[in-house]
Design a protein that fits this description.
heterotetramer; A: two-stranded antiparallel sheet; 21 helices; 4% strand; C: 184 residues; mainly alpha; Four Helix Bundle (Hemerythrin (Met), subunit A); extended
Chain lengths: 528, 105, 184, 681
């Protein structure tokens, strides 16, 4: 069983990639074979992830487990260092799960230009990137996986995306939505990543001072936190902040998100919302805070301000949308605002809030995008003014939409509540040294944000779900939720309820790790 | 032999050929012509290799062996290249490189 | 060493002639307005190269060049030219880009850099001794001894290119298309 | 008994000084009452359609089970020893020493609530089975009813504030589902939204209040809160008033206190059984319950918050009662009446009348459920909500008529029906605590209450029938619950007659407290005859005036309902004090100008910057390109693609597509690099 300990994570990361290569060898016409293969590969990955979770030593959640540390690029001291702890485990399992569900969902739902093989190959590559990011413990490795997700997503949006033409303010030409969105997504993220890489390199070189070998190793860098101080640390944090904040996305770096979500094919939106956005916030917890805790304290109020702006701004922007998918996309801005607010408090509760918020947002918004995609599939429009009476036309779909919207607005007892509630809980009493008044104001504004969230979700439900169907759809036969959709959605629904009723499912793993992280990073101010 | 053969005379000749190849590569529209230019560049490289071998006096004919490899790969390249050009020509009724801007936004 | 000394060496006479021919042919390859001519000038340029190889006592390589290139590759090219119906006549307007100037500038700059590099590095260094010719056996032993693995790999590449070329270029015409093809 | 030094039951419990049994297995498994309706909800949603009675049997069965269980608990609690039990299951440790728990609590207060929810719930469920026959989505209706009751039980059974929030919002969700039951009409779905949303706004207060208490105390437990309050804890002290007011804001939302009451009249859009359940047992009582549960906080630390609460309660009890005078919809009359009665309860609790407020909650639950079900029966018969379509129904619907009158009299506070006793207790408490002005307003409120009930009864059951068709009595399955509720509406008051302790049953006060420990509130030990007479007189006067103004004789004179139109006041009342306009105005401001402004900023400012950067790069690059490549410009400036070509290899590859141009630039770049490396560096 020692063997499993060593190989498990590497398999989880690289099995999808290998699967993608093999899938390329399957003739394009044999779609069923490709689908089965992709399902098998992602399924095995999920099973491995679940086994890892089952064999995970919950008593030592703060320690990296299933760790592998091999020399990789000797010249720059980059190691192949991977491992999971309580913080990354839930996200890893979530990522593996969502990929499987996406494969199942896409069984019968293909956007033009079809080509399942190409799409599934991209999805598997994406899986490698996502899983890899969550287990990487080396900055170079992290960077590679972090960037690896860009390409498949770029192609997913650019090829299978929305083909309508769109006028961009400030440009004479009309462009195809998918191309605009794909390029915006790519360039925006790349822009952030450039700064992030700069930050990584700065850390690397600085870590070499004092007679030590420079290193990219994250745990090692955490141990050398004393080397990074003053303006240097401030700038490095800023550089990494840019990279992560774009990915999260935090206001005002969010504008790629509504476009990308709206233009992406359903599965692309789901993956984007469920996993990709988490990479940024995860990186804050994994890299920025532990390595540069002192600087994090300087930056925290700034992050908190952007977060609450994002919460209010996202909710208000939602109220002005006419496109269902765009509305859901903007809701992500608000929800990730809560996640970042939790992180900004730098407390155990706040960071826990961020993690459970990420998981919940992944489950809920993923499901919402599935639903939006399925509705678009049937109505061929996402304009809310044309929809209405969905619950009457498709009771099951409408019911699930209602349920998910409720979960999204943070109904207690469902997953979304804990993230919001705990983020607010954390901001009432932030880390000692941070301005209490400031964070309490943020808490109140955030709480008002929950009201606005409820506002647009209810409004969306009323527009889409309730009322009489418009005459446009009279006499049309709508196929309610089909088998594949059901199989893809039920796990999400069950998890939303399960995490909502028993948040220990997530927090039971994370708390020890988070407590360890906060205590190590902020031992000076906690006085412990 | 004691002959007054300067190394550079070969190298410069190769450089000139190479640069002409580059020029052709940049300026020709027809894909076949582009391939021709590439061949010219490869020939220049071969001259370099053989000249350097003569200069270093290797006994294992390393330069020549490398040149053999280059010739072989070049032949393969021409085969594939022409096949691709043929395919493009069939689909677009033209083998002009500057019309192949599918990748453009 | 002056030019006098250099030119006194008979070998260099030969070199000068060959070099001149090669350069001129090469120049015509990239400037000729006629595609077929360009291909034929490439033959000349390659022949010049082969001659240089002979001069450097690499006979085997020289003949390989002649056989492989002039014998096979050029023929392939000519086929390609014919199949793609490149303008075989004189067609200045169409064969080149209009952007010759920047290309020429770039090329000349490259040449200048190369020349600078070569001259500053090697200067007047002479080749001491041109061996009486490397025995082809050495070449053979090298290829099948020390370099046998790359040799096999290259062979495989060639095979792959062969198969790939056929696969790419092959197309089954439908009867309608065949008719259209003929009518054109 | 006069309050002599406060010892809360909570504190006493911790010291082990209380005389209370644990209730044995009935307490240990009391959680079943919380889980049951929730499971029923799931079962009905999943399998209800295949059941014979479309899921109603499951809902009713579970409710009957709950009634039996809670009755046993109630009886156990009546003895000399009360019942006190609590069980919590940890659902998360969140760091910072905080723990989230789910569980249940069995003490006098929660037993009373369990029983009320179960008793009223069972009556309503049975009634609804008849009422909803032939309606659409019956299955889902019963599922949501179960969820409604279940959430309420989760709320009242909660031993901590976090679970309270879960039940709290669950109740909100269920009310949303039920009010919007006929969601095909936009009006109904808007009413549902309004209810949910108004509550959500108020919940901000609750959530922040809970957070403050939780963080300050390091625990969300009521026990710890009460203990801290009793000890005048230094931790809690500085934030107590803030937290108390915030919790109160939450309670205002659920219990429809001014100005958060606006959702409640609109909530009549739901089917009548929903209104009955919502007004009697499951929703609006939640706020009162919360105030009672956190009573020590208000009693000890947050006394400064109490005037505000009393003010809100008083405005509600009088102002909202007036509104009931001018509406035509019979359900809205009852709705405003509920709001007004909730004002009584809130005022009482805020003034320190723990028992008084809860006692009124207890009696009110029965007669208000009775009135709503009666109204539903009438509506069922005449197919209209408006009293202008009714009249003279006493002959057609004898059972409904009789029970409705009983309910009305109880609500008006006529001796010896239940309402009399509970209202009297409130008045006595107010008087004792020295809130004399409030007390007299409350008496005036009793007058108003009697007045509008007399009006409603007169317009509905007396005079000539003004509607269409032939009204008929409702089936037995609907009238039976009416009679079942009429019984407690009459006798429930007897359990708390001041100075009278019934054998075996004990008194309501003792139910709510744990034996031998005082709750610290004032509870009258003898009847203040003067005050009782004043209250009764006000009620009788109101009934008389209503009868005169709207009775058969008056109705003969004037067919219109509102022939007394006091200038100035009448339009104000008809427009509901213009509060809806204010609320709508606020929503509109957010929805329209504000949201649009944000969206505009997003598209044109933030995105504008992004696009402008792109455009600038294009411009720059096209400049570069022109310089490098004079002759190559095709004349068409593909701004974007050229722009990108300047931005680097990646962008170029995406956007330009000219292989040779790349090659050229590649060579040029290489040259540049070499030159740079060789000559510059």
């Amino acid at each position: 069983m020692e063997l499993f300990e060593i190989w498990a994570l590497s398999l989880i990361v690289f099995l999808p990639l290998a699967g993608a290569l093999v899938a390329l060898a399957i003739p394009k016409e044999r779609e069923e074979a490709v689908k089965l293969w992709a399902l098998g590969v992602s399924g095995v990955t999920l099973i491995l992830a679940v086994i890892v979770a089952a064999r995970f030593d919950f008593g030592a959640a703060g320690r990296f487990q299933f760790e592998v540390d091999l020399p990789w690029i000797g010249a720059i001291g980059a190691n192949y260092h991977i491992g999971v702890d309580g913080i990354s485990l839930p996200l890893l399992v979530l990522s593996a799960l969502v990929v499987v569900l996406c494969v199942i969902y896409s069984w019968k739902h293909w956007d033009e230009p079809h080509n399942p093989r190409g799409f599934l190959v991209l999805m598997l590559i994406l899986a490698t990137g996502m899983n890899g990011t969550f287990v990487a413990l080396d900055l170079v490795l992290f960077f590679i996986f972090f960037e690896l997700v860009l390409l498949p997503m770029y192609f997913m949006i650019g090829i299978w995306g929305d083909r309508t033409m769109r006028k961009i303010p400030g440009f004479k030409k009309e462009v195809e939505t998918r191309l605009y969105a794909a390029i915006k997504f790519f360039i925006f993220t790349l822009f952030g990543s450039a700064f992030m890489l700069l930050g990584f390199l700065a850390l690397y070189f600085k870590s070499g001072s004092g007679g030590l070998d420079p290193t990219f190793d994250i745990p090692e860098l955490i141990g050398r936190g004393f080397l990074f101080e003053g303006t240097f640390a401030w700038l490095v944090f800023g550089a990494m902040f840019l990279g992560f904040a774009v990915k999260v996305p935090m206001w005002p770096f969010h504008t790629w998100l509504p476009d990308a979500h709206t233009a992406a094919p359903t599965v692309g939106s789901v993956l984007l919302a469920a996993i990709l956005l988490k990479l940024g916030s995860y990186a804050f917890i994994r890299i920025s805070i532990p390595i540069l805790p002192e600087t994090a304290r300087e930056w925290a109020p700034f992050i908190a301000v952007l977060s609450v702006i994002g919460i209010i701004y996202g909710s208000l922007a939602c109220l002005a949308q006419t496109d269902v998918k765009r509305l859901i996309a903007f809701s992500s801005v608000g929800h990730m605002g809560f996640v970042m607010l939790g992180i900004a408090t730098l407390t155990e509760v706040g960071i826990n809030a961020a993690i459970i918020g990420m998981v919940a947002h992944g489950l809920i918004t993923g499901l919402l995008f599935f639903l939006a995609g399925s509705m678009h599939h049937r109505y061929h429009t996402r304009e809310m003014s044309r929809l209405g009476g969905n619950l009457k036309l498709m009771p099951v779909l409408g019911g699930i939409l209602g349920f998910t919207a409720m979960a999204s607005l943070g109904l207690p007892g469902l997953a979304g509540f804990w993230g919001e509630f705990m983020a607010l809980l954390g901001s009432y009493q932030p880390l000692p040294g941070l301005s209490t008044d400031f964070f309490r104001t943020a808490m109140v504004i955030g709480a008002i944000g929950t009201v606005l969230t409820a506002g647009y979700m209810l409004w969306m439900l009323q527009k889409v779900n309730l009322g009489e169907p418009s005459s446009e759809w009279a006499g049309k036969k709508f196929h309610d939720v089909d088998r594949y959709e059901m199989i893809a959605w039920v796990p999400l629904i069950v998890l939303i309820v399960a995490v909502g009723v028993y948040p220990k499912l997530v927090l039971g793993v994370t708390t020890d790790a988070v407590v360890g992280l906060v205590e190590t990073a902020f031992s000076s101010v906690l006085g412990g | 032999m004691g002959v007054e053969v300067i190394l550079n005379q070969f190298l410069i000749l190769a450089a000139v050929l190479f640069v002409m190849g580059v020029y052709g590569l940049l300026v020709r529209r027809n894909a076949v012509m582009v391939l021709l230019a590439v061949e010219l560049m490869l020939a220049a490289v071969n001259i370099n290799l053989v000249a350097m071998e003569a200069f270093w006096q290797t006994t294992e004919a390393l330069g020549q062996i490398l040149a053999v490899f280059i010739i072989t790969v070049a032949a393969a390249e021409v085969g594939i290249g022409l096949a691709i050009i043929l395919l493009i020509f069939r689909n677009r009724r033209s083998a002009n490189v500057d019309e192949l801007d599918l990748m453009r936004w | 060493m002056g030019f006098e000394d250099w030119i006194a060496e008979p070998l260099n006479w030969v070199f000068a002639v060959i070099a001149l021919a090669t350069v001129v042919s090469g120049f015509r390859v990239v400037t000729s307005p006629n595609v077929v001519h360009a291909a034929l000038f490439l033959v000349a340029a390659l022949a010049g190269t082969a001659a240089l190889f002979l001069l450097l006592a690499a006979e085997f390589l020289a003949w390989v060049l002649v056989l492989v290139y002039i014998g096979a590759v050029i023929v392939l090219f000519l086929f390609g030219i014919m199949i793609t119906r490149a303008p075989t006549g004189r067609d200045e307007s169409n064969l080149d880009h209009k952007r010759r100037l920047p290309a020429a500038l770039v090329s000349l700059a490259l040449l200048a850099l190369l020349l600078w590099g070569l001259i500053s590095q090697w200067g007047d260094t002479t080749i001491d001794r041109i061996t009486a010719g490397t025995p082809t056996t050495v070449l053979g032993e090298g290829l099948l001894g020390r370099f046998v693995f790359p040799f096999e790999v290259v062979g495989f590449v060639l095979l792959a290119a062969l198969v790939g070329g056929i696969t790419i270029a092959r197309r089954d015409l439908s009867p309608a298309e065949e008719k259209e093809w003929e009518s054109k | 008994m006069v309050n002599a030094g406060l010892t809360t039951i909570y504190l006493a419990a911790e010291e082990g000084a209380i005389h209370a049994g644990t209730g044995g297995i009935w307490s240990e498994w009391a959680g079943l009452m919380l889980i049951g309706p929730m499971l029923a909800f799931l079962v009905i949603v999943m399998f209800g359609k295949r059941m014979r009675y479309q899921g109603a049997e499951v809902a009713i069965g579970v409710m009957a089970f709950n009634l039996i269980w809670s009755t046993v608990l109630l009886v156990l609690n009546m003895g000399d020893e009360g019942v006190l039990y609590e069980r919590s299951i940890e659902i998360a440790r969140v760091g910072g020493g905080l723990v989230f728990e789910l569980g249940w609590m069995v003490d006098g207060l929660s037993i009373m609530m369990y029983w009320v929810v179960a008793a009223v719930g069972l009556a309503v469920f049975v009634y609804a089975h008849g009422y909803m026959k032939g309606e659409i989505r019956v299955t889902f209706f019963f599922a949501a009813l179960s969820l409604f009751a279940g959430s309420m039980l989760v709320l009242v059974g909660s031993p901590n504030l976090v679970q309270l929030i879960i039940g709290w919002e669950g109740v909100g969700l269920a009310s949303y589902l039920l009010i919007g039951h006929y969601w095909e009409d936009k009006e109904n779905s808007s009413a549902a939204m309004k209810a949910f949303y108004t509550n959500k706004v108020a919940d901000v207060g609750l959530i922040i209040g809970v957070i403050i208490i939780g963080v300050v105390l390091g625990s969300f437990h009521y026990w710890d809160l009460a203990a801290a309050a009793a000890e005048h804890s230094d931790l809690l002290g500085p934030v107590a008033v803030t937290a108390a007011i915030l919790l109160f804001i939450g309670a205002m939302g659920k219990s429809a206190q001014f100005p958060f009451h606006i959702w409640l009249p609109d909530a009549m859009a739901g089917p009548t059984p929903v209104s009955a359940l919502m007004h009697a047992a499951t929703m609006v009582t939640a706020g009162i319950y919360l105030m009672a549960r956190t009573f020590p906080l208000y009693q000890e630390l947050a006394t400064a918050a109490r005037p505000w609460m009393i003010a809100a309660g008083t405005i509600t009890l009088f102002g909202m009662g007036l509104l009931a005078l001018v509406v035509d919809d019979i359900k809205r009359v009852l709705a405003y009446s509920t709001v007004s009665q909730l004002g009584y309860m809130m005022t009482a609790v805020a003034a320190g009348g723990y028992t008084a407020g809860l006692f009124h909650l207890f009696t009110h639950a029965f007669f208000k459920a009775l009135l709503f079900l009666g109204a539903g029966s009438v509506i069922h018969a005449v197919h209209s909500n408006n009293m202008s379509d009714m009249g003279g129904l006493r002959h057609h619907m004898p059972h409904t008529y009789r029970t409705f009158v009983i309910g009305s009299l109880a609500l008006a506070g006529i001796f010896p029906l239940s309402g009399f006793w509970s209202k009297d207790e409130i008045l006595a408490t107010l008087g004792y605590e020295g809130y004399n002005l409030v007390m007299w307003i409350a008496v005036a409120g009793a007058f108003v209450t009697a007045f509008y009930m007399a009006r409603a009864v007169s317009l509905t059951f007396f005079g000539e029938y003004r509607g269409h068709g032939h009204p008929h009595e409702s089936p037995r399955i609907m009238t039976a619950p009416l009679w079942a509720l009429a019984v407690p509406a009459v006798i429930a008051g007897l359990v708390n007659i001041p100075g009278l302790k019934l054998p075996l049953i004990g008194s309501f006060t003792s139910w709510l407290s744990v034996r031998s420990v005082s709750m610290g509130d004032h509870h009258a030990e003898s009847i203040d005859l003067g005050l009782a007479a004043a209250g009764l007189a006000a009620a009788v006067a109101g009934l008389w005036l209503g009868w005169v103004a709207f009775g058969p004789k008056a109705a003969k004179r004037r067919a219109e309902r509102d022939w007394v139109e006091v200038p100035g006041l009448y339009p104000l009342l008809r427009q509901k004090y213009y509060l809806d306009h204010v609320a709508l105005g606020m929503v509109w401001t957010i929805r329209s100008p504000l949201a649009r402004a944000v969206n505009w900023v997003n598209d044109y400012v933030i995105d504008g910057v992004v696009n402008m950067v792109g455009a600038l790069c294009q411009g720059l690059a096209s400049l570069v390109y022109r310089g490098v490549d004079q002759r190559g410009i095709d004349g068409v400036v593909h701004g974007v693609s050229y722009g990108a070509s300047g931005m680097g290899g990646l962008l170029r590859r995406i956007q330009s597509g000219r292989v040779q141009q790349y090659a050229g630039l590649l060579v040029a770049g290489l040259l540049l690099l070499v030159v740079l490396v060789l000559f510059v560096l």
